[in-house]
Amino acid sequence: MLIAGFPAGAWATNCYLVAPAAGEECVIIDPGHQAAPGVEEAIRKHRLKPVAVVLTHGHLDHVASVVPVCGAHDVPAWIHPEDRFMMSDPEKGLGRSIGLPLLGELTVGEPDDVRELTDGAKLELAGLEFSVAHAPGHTRGSVTFRMPESADVPSVLFSGDLLFAGSVGRTDLPGGSMDDMLESLARVVLPLDDSTVVLPGHNEHTTIGQERATNPYLRQVAAGQGASEAPRRGM
After folding, report:
1. Alpha carbon distance 193, 52 (integer Å)
2. For residue 123, which of 59, 83, 130, 200 is within the disulfide window of CB 3.0 to 4.6 Å?
3. Is the backbone peptide bond immediately before 90 cis, with ω within 30 degrees of 0?
4. What is the mean pLDDT of residues 72-77?
5. Average pLDDT in the 171-190 region?
6. Mean residue pLDDT across the chain
7. For residue 59, with 0-12 CB atoms within 10 Å meaning exposed, 13-18 middle and 19 or more buried, which class applies?
8. What's the longest Cα–Cα distance across the chain?
């Protein structure tokens, strides 16, 4: 399996292109701010043919290049219905306190073909299978995408802003909730095998086993403690 990833734009958001192998169809995950050039470079380098864009949530740093990428390759975008509004109204999703000085240079709106993700759905795209889990906390419509173990690779979890190496996504933006974040970690992350690879992670990746041992949020959840005892993440 091929996973080509790169950090894009002012927020260094992780964008991924996933394919069974070079020279085949691929799925693009989270083409955010200024991601389009990196997407096209990866497509040329690995001789890929995009068939879909899938989005872990609707924040600007994850969706800002959806319109040009989908338009260039005539492919649909998949997003949870609770985050769909952010594609057309990113400021509402981020809150006015954040400010959007780059908004004027962005292509805001929806691509021609938008499809809605549901909890428990299985997407079969580019010869790959992605299991969708609704995982609110960072946003109301945050999701993860999990790929099953195959002959040559372990299971992979594309966690969006639910889980990082040693941390989790922020919960102080509109739609954020630490209670929801902890519930999502308990329901979506803790049941996974230790060998499951988590993207994004430190450097290239982390694993569920590493996170169980080092991530204070997962350790709080495993201990059965609630939001009042959870560690606090800064800006």
Report:
1. 28
2. 130
3. no
4. 98
5. 94
6. 89
7. buried
8. 49
Q: What are the strands of the beta sheet with 2-8, ordered from one edge? A: 2-8, 13-19, 25-29, 49-54, 77-79, 114-116
Q: 110: alpha, beta or left, given left = phi > 0 and alpha = psi -120 to 50?
A: beta
- Are 63 and 86 a contacting pair, CB within 8 Å? yes
Burial state string for 199-222 with b = 16 or more CB within 10 A and e = fewer than 16: bbbeeebbbbebbeeebebbebbe
Residue percentage of the chain with pLDDT more than 70? 88
CA distance 130 to 124: 7
Which two three-digit tokens encode residue 132? 């969708």
Per-range mean pLDDT, top range of 104-118, 130-144, 157-171? 130-144
